[in-house]
Amino acid sequence: MPFETPPPPPPAARRAPTFQANAGTDARQLLRALLPPRPALRHVLQAHARLAVLGLATACALPQILAVLPRLPPGGADASYSYPLALFLSSNSASAFASNHLLRVLPHPLPLSLFPRLPHRNRHSFTFLLASLSNHLDADHTVGSSASLFLGSHVHALAVKAGAAGDLYVRNALVHFYGVCGDVAAMRRVFDELPLVRDVVTWNAVLDGYVRVGMVGDAREVFDIMPVRDEVSWSSLVGGYVKEGELEVALGVFRNMVAQGLKANEAAIVTALSAAAQLGLLEQGKFVHEVVQRARMPVSVNVGAALVDMYSKCGSIAAAREVFDAMPRRDVFAWNSMICGLAAHGLGHDAVMLFEKFVTEGFCPTSITFVGVLNACSRTGLVDKGRWYFRLMSEKYGIESEMEHYGCMVDLLSRAGLVQEAIELIEGMPIAPDPVLWGTILSACKRHALVDLGITVGNKLIELEPAHDGHYVLLASIYATAKKWGEVRKVRKLMSNRGTSKSAGWSLMEAHGIVHRFLVGDMDHKDSVQIYNMLGMIDRRLAEAGYVPDVSSVLHDIGDEEKVHAIKVHSERLAIAYGFIVVGAGSPIRIVKNLSVCGDCHEFSKMVTKVFSREIIVRDGSRFHHMKDGECSCHDYW
């Protein structure tokens, strides 16, 4: 009988380390062994209990436990605050080490009240005290609070009196505090006082202070003269440009950072993805995603949600879904991004199904979740479902309807032709309706040829918001539909007299990492001759296929031939023509518009995809249009 290989011995059970050194050293070693890298309060309590069982929770070990405690959030239970106080008071060596960690752990305003009574302090005590104030301001998103500024100035004066104001860490905390307060003059004064007492943290604090108050130009000046920059410096500048709406500049800074070999941190990644999403530039967003992949950076919940949002807003909903499905862990923000993305792409049924899965998995919907679901119903014409979700929001989840929810419902009803029901909903709102809701009604009047109602609503809106150009344009369009050219001229004259001009429509197209912007009738592009030649060829082929321009959107009492010419040079047509030149035949032409696409350009684009077998994806002011084989994802319901 052959010998059988004996089974391997069972793995040894994990045992707590045993120690025979002094208690203080043992406590430090055991805490390192027992605690995760970022312990929560419960982890520390469990470790304390283990120390007590081993007889190591002595008075001299308690400061070590205090040192590993996380900073406690404000508004916590009194019991959670009493624990660090008990550790401190039970310690037989109430040292500056213990005092400083007590100041670090407790939330504002407890450190301020305890500070004068601490038996031992050193220069680092001021660092923790200032950090407590700064964290409080950050949490409350408070800028320029006079009370906080007074308290911080008082701590500053105490530091000067104690001879600690020249310490590097104290100075960094002071610069950061004044920056969080929004007092850039005081921030800069502290920064400039001792030029030799600075490090990269000091420079970053000044950079962040300028970014917080929107002074991105000053931030750039500081950035350019920094002797050393780290990933925090770069991410702060990227964030500053995004905050001020200079999105293309932000993406340029991000690319420069990567080109210089720096590893982007999560803040820079998320901010750059946000910039690409707002611009709708897929190539830029893909570049950021490639940076994540090359660095083998784990896709955290924040990065995953930002990627889903970017791909959704850049017209690649399939890539967004792929990222979403691959996320190991998803929070509400990731679900909301995916639901809202599906809605924007006209995939209302998919958005509703995902919402039901979201609820089934135990997540609780937020206000934003319902904006996405109601928008999905609106884009797909799911009137009954929309009404049901609107009631469910308040009746089951206790979420009060906000302006965005009413906006989705008014849009849903108006698109479906239920304009009177939409008006009744507005008039029955418990809050004052935003003029945007009446603007939705006005758009519906144009769509459904409700001339008399449109005239009434349009004149009402012009009185409510005399500086809003869109109301004049829609009202003039309704008059033009009814051939009331005299009224059209009156509206245009009123618009001119009030100094209101129509927002210029533009279209963006990205090719080989370069963003191209087109205006109506644009002749400024370097390839204008080629673009107009290509557009002429496209027009001829479409005419041969039976396309006839719809000139009803032209608000001028001019001949049809002139109207056709006016429509032919709309910005999205120029972008499509350029796409034919620079985008390969197998790739979709992607266009971003600032305004809604007009009816004729929508038909033109669909016809292009049919005649030339091309795919066109347009993100206009309200949704996506995926056009292929003469069809659009919106099913002409937009």
In short:
This protein has 638 residues and is mainly alpha-helical.
Descriptive report:
The protein has 638 residues and is mainly α. The chain contains 32 helices and 6 strands. Helix content is 62%, strand content 4%. Strands 2-1-3-4-5-6 form a 6-stranded mixed β-sheet, covered by helices on one side. It is elongated and about 90 Å long.
Topology overview:
Blueprint: H1 23-34, H2 41-53, H3 62-68, H4 78-90, H5 96-105, H6 110-114, H7 123-140, H8 146-161, H9 168-181, H10 184-193, H11 200-212, H12 216-225, H13 231-243, H14 247-259, H15 266-279, H16 282-294, H17 301-313, H18 317-326, H19 332-344, H20 348-360, H21 367-380, H22 383-395, H23 403-415, H24 419-427, H25 435-447, H26 451-464, H27 469-481, H28 485-497, E1 506-511, E2 514-519, H29 528-544, H30 560-568, H31 571-582, E3 589-593, H32 599-612, E4 616-619, E5 624-628, E6 631-632
Average pLDDT taken over every residue: 88
Helix- and strand-based class? mainly alpha
- Assess the beta-strand content as a share of residues: under 5%
Going across the biggest sheet, name each strand in turn: 2-1-3-4-5-6
Number of helices: 32
Outline type: elongated
Q: What is the rounded distance between the termini?
A: 81 Å
Strand elements, count: 6
Q: pLDDT under 50 segments (min length 5)?
A: 1-5, 12-17, 555-561
Describe the largest sheet.
6 strands, mixed
Classify the helix fraction into a percent range.
Answer: 55-70%
What Rg is obtained from the alpha carbons, in whole angstroms?
31 Å
